[in-house]
Amino acid sequence: MRLRPTLRGWALAAVGLAIVLLAVAMGSVDLARLGAVGLLVVGASAGVVAWIDTGHHRRPLAVHRAVVPNPVHAGERVAVEVRITSADPATRARLAGLRFAEQAATELSAGRPLRARVQRSPGLVVVSYGVQTARRGRWPLGPLVVTRNDLFGTVASTSTLGEQAEVTVWPAVTALPAPSDVLVGEPDRVAIGARSPSTDDSSLRDYREGDDLRRVHWRSSARRGELVVRSDERAGMRPVSVLLDLPTRPAHVEWSISLAASVALAMLDAGHPVRLLDGTRAHTGVTGVPFLHTRHDGARAALLDQTVDLEATRVSSEAQSRLVASAHLLESTEAGGEIVLGVLGPLGAGARAALAHVADTAQGWAMVRTDPQHAADQRDAEHTVDALRRAGWRACLVTPGEPAITCWMRLLGSAR
């Protein structure tokens, strides 16, 4: 609790003190008493407010904060409702004289005061407002700031009420078209892309070149006069690893994460098992990054949750070592027939060599960042694209700030 005089209180105390000093100089007892009244009012008001707040802490108010939606994508609006209730008659009376203000991180309030609507009823105060999420992360909201004035408005006490909440902000994402016909249907990759046996044979479909013959349903094929196979479209889809190389320039970090998240969600929605490799977990010795499946509830949320705490390094050598660690993770898990989709920056020789080996067992596609304003970066990005293509990757250049759909379609078009 913080107790302080208001502007009126300071003025009353100053006038009272001036009158007391004047009375001492003049030797007037009556004038001194008049000045003392002002000081006494301020002091007594402070004591009363402090006593009331002490009683408030003995019988606390109940605070419930609802944040909808939470988590939320960057750039979207969040509605917040704070309900302050009291079932105690004494606390209910004090509730009517309180003023409320909410606190929020700058990433939620843009540094401006929150405009809230306050609704009062007996034993209940509802504070509702909206915030605009600015960027990815986990941002604090609250606690509630409570201000109480005395009867004369000379003293104010400020304290906090309730617990602090957290708003989880996912990166902004773009809905991208399903790419399975381009990524999986290449003639030179059909054998690798054949659907594997699944324990959940929920449907039949026409046989496609490269399908596993063990999945042929011979009885139905004989009846129809053409080959059909048992298929659970999701269980037989090729796994996808989205390889994210975080840039060292802060201005490009959010764009890169949003692009990688959009690509990962597009593949997840298409039915592929997906995992996100940012190099952080592989670099710290954590192996076996699991794949997420659309048949599991919360797969999209789990994938986006992995992006919330991503932080780029300021040192280029560390960023390259993270990427090499991710490449080694792909090799150690025997990514045979896997699709690797990379959101990369200009790479050094060591990182290019590590990714070249990935293409020996997996199908690699990469979008490589380039910055036309920096000639060295653009030259290194072009060398990276050339090196990846020679190693068997499909690769194209992208510019930070471009729409994700533009980058995605350029990558898919590089196959033609």
TrEMBL record:
DUF58 domain: residues covered: 204-274
Bilayer-crossing regions: 7-25
Keyword list, A-Z: Membrane, Transmembrane, Transmembrane helix
InterPro entries the record matches: DUF58
Domain of life: Bacteria
Protein name (database record): DUF58 domain-containing protein
Organism of origin: Cellulomonas fulva
